[in-house]
Amino acid sequence: MWLLWEEYELVTVTTQSVRISGEKCCGNKNGGIIEVEFYTQHNECTSGIADCHHDATCVDIATGLGYRCPCKFGHYGDGRITGSGCVAKNGSVNVASLVNGGSCMGSSSEYSTYYTCRHALDGLHTYEPGQAWRIRGTYDISPWIEIAFIQYYVIHLARLMQDFRAIHLFKDLKLTFSDSSIQNISSNIALHRFDRHLWEEFQLMPVNTSSVRIDVLTIYSHGLNGFVEIEFYTKSNECEEETHDCHPLATCVDIVKTPGFLCPCNFGYYGDGKMNGFGCRALNHSVNVALATHGGHCDSSSSEASESWFCSGVVDGIETHGVNQQWYSHDNDQEPWVSITFNKVSHYFKKN
Question: What is d(CA 50, CA 17) in angstroms, rounded to the nearest whole number?
């Protein structure tokens, strides 16, 4: 048999390198190793040091070092305590928001550079300078603001925030969409005079649109009218419409705050979850940390027979007796050794 694998159970050891040495046997002059592997079953998930959010599942990456934190069903985010965590889905996306590609196409007027059209789309819910839109007082008798979305969306909900300061508030509004359809909404915000910031929600007849113009038909009083924030929501997502490219062993999860979706692999599988990517593969819970592609590298050896038989050949993952794919020591090397370093400290050694 030309190529023969042998496996050895080792006593658990924490290390970042290993030196293999020994004596030649059987009168073989060209002593060497075709491939050497060291395996670890340690992972951050089982050791409890992962920073996954409490609404995420820690998944060890079997073919590499590290782990993933896919959010549990009904939640979205990066799954990390130190990141965006996992937030419960509400099935809606504010497509008017600047971070989601919304933009202001124009307005009837702007009170100053501190109160511009785009500030009503910035997600900051306060009427401070630079965080709201105001018109130019009584000079603007027919206020309007127009918003464009990054693409066509089926809009089903509008949300408005006005600021109660001196009853400078809008009342009846006309919404004109890109297909020229019109819907009217009426605010009752003046009934809540002592609420500084008040949200109002308006259910709309679903409309497929890429923009909306809001015209003010009537107001409660003239003055520094405007919106603190204005939002338009869609429930359309690739998961529900089955237009996603998630792998059959992954779960499609809609991203609520931004367009798009995630494809976390199901329990017991790893990968990017995409049909046109790595897909989802079964976990085997072992990682060859000596492999060059996982950061392992050969530091040095007692000797090398020639430029064709060098130390790094034993960690390249190529299991063959070919040239440049193994290590041989010199004939006169009576106690050959090779030293391998890993890219970080590994906690268990085992060939699984």
Answer: 24
pLDDT band at 209 (very low <50, low <70, confident <90, very high): very high
Q: Is 160 exposed, middle or buried (0-12, 13-18, 19+ CB in 10 A)?
A: buried
Whether 49 is in a domain gets the answer no
- Counting the structural domains of the chain, the total is 2
Say if residue 125 is in the same domain as residue 223: yes
On whether both 212 and 298 belong to a single domain, the answer is: no
CA dihedral 338, 343, 349, 352 (to 10 degrees): -100
Asked if residues 286 and 39 have their Cβ atoms less than 8 Å apart, the reply is yes
181 found inside a domain: yes
Q: Which amino acid is at 219?
A: I
pLDDT single digits (tens) 166-187 = 445 788 999 999 999 999 999 8
Give me the domain span that covers residue 324.
Answer: 15-41+286-346
- Least-confidence region, from 109-123, 184-198, 223-237: 184-198
Assess contact for 265 and 247: CB atoms under 8 A.
yes
Q: Are 223 and 138 in contact (CB under 8 A)?
A: yes
How far, in Å, CA of 134 to CA of 2, rounded? Answer: 82
Dihedral over Cα of 191, 197, 201, 207: its sign: positive
| Domain CATH number, residue 166 | 2.60.120.260
Average pLDDT of the chain is 76
Residue 344's pLDDT is what? Answer: 61
**pLDDT per residue as tens digits for the range 1-38:** 455 667 777 777 778 788 887 766 665 555 667 778 77
Residue 31 sits in the same domain as residue 149: no
| CA distance linking residue 27 with residue 31, whole number of Å | 9
